[in-house]
Amino acid sequence: RVIGSNSRPMTGVKIEGNTISNAQRYGIFGTYAPKMLIQKANKISLTAKQAILLEKASNNSKISGCVINNKKMDAIAVYGCKKVTVSGNTVTAKDNGIRVALNSPMAVVEKNTVQSTGQNGIWVSSGCGQSVVRENTIKKYGTSGEYYGIYIYQAGGKSAKQTTTVKGNTITGSGKSQVKHGIKVSESPYLVCEANKITATP
Q1: Are strands 52-55 and 2-3 parallel, antiparallel or unpaired?
Q2: What is the rounded CA–CA span in Å between residue 123 and residue 3?
Q3: In 10 A of CB 197, how many CB atoms?
Q4: What is the value of pTM for the model shown?
Q5: Is 92 strand, coil or helix?
Q6: What is the percent of the chain where pLDDT is above 70?
Q7: Shortest CA distance to 93 belongs to which of 53, 132, 20, 143?
Q8: Helix/strand/coil for 79
């Protein structure tokens, strides 16, 4: 757990090569921790809450190369942080694979492998405009109900030159839902969605 404050942020912390299981709360938790690096094969399983949670101005941080199997909640969640990169992770989760929400603009979610999720594979929402979701592979999603491979909600761009982008993702499989949307975009203007490959199967 890395805890800073608004007046005394914990800047530049590195978390690398850890194995975490059966945590009673989060696997890795950072608050007011800008430029934090969570990388190099952290392995996390069986946490009671999110396996990795960054919140409260942990801006310009990066989560990469982690392997997560979370049977309780989301694998990776980012709340209230600007310009966070989530890349090259392999995740399985009961809820969402990767969730970016609560005013976390200009996030980059790229080259992750989402093995299986109960809810959305990748969910970007609520004030997370000008984000990029690209070159991810989502193998199975929505096993607990009506969810989506990639869901963009209230996270559009600012203009035709400052867009949110969903590009080059590969989505296969689906879960229990009768409505098997690989990608859903809602209330998100100035968004570019291109060159994605969707092969939904029952």
Answers
A1: unpaired
A2: 25
A3: 11
A4: 0.97
A5: strand
A6: 97
A7: 143
A8: strand
Question: How many residues are given for the chain?
Answer: 202
- Tell me what percent of the chain is helix, strand and coil, each rounded to the nearest 5: 0, 40, 60
CA distance 154 to 136: 21
Beta sheet of 132-134, edge-to-edge order? 14-16, 37-39, 62-64, 85-87, 108-110, 132-134, 164-167, 191-194
Terminal CA-to-CA distance of the chain, rounded, Å?
Answer: 40
User: How many angstroms from the chain centroid is the CA of residue 11?
Assistant: 22
What is the side-by-side strand order in the sheet with 150-153? 2-3, 28-31, 52-55, 76-79, 98-101, 122-125, 150-153, 183-186
3-state secondary structure of 77: strand
CA distance 175 to 180: 8
Q: How far is CA 159 from CA 4, 9, 47, 163, in A?
A: 34, 32, 40, 6
pLDDT digits (tens, 9 = 90+) for 103-137: 999 999 999 999 999 999 999 999 999 999 999 99
Scanning the structure block, which residue is given the tokens 């696997």?
Answer: 27
Closest by CA to 56, choosing from 77, 36, 26, 80, is 80
* Distant-in-sequence, close-in-space partners of 7: CB < 8 Å, separation ≥ 6: none
Distance CA 16, CA 109 (A): 19
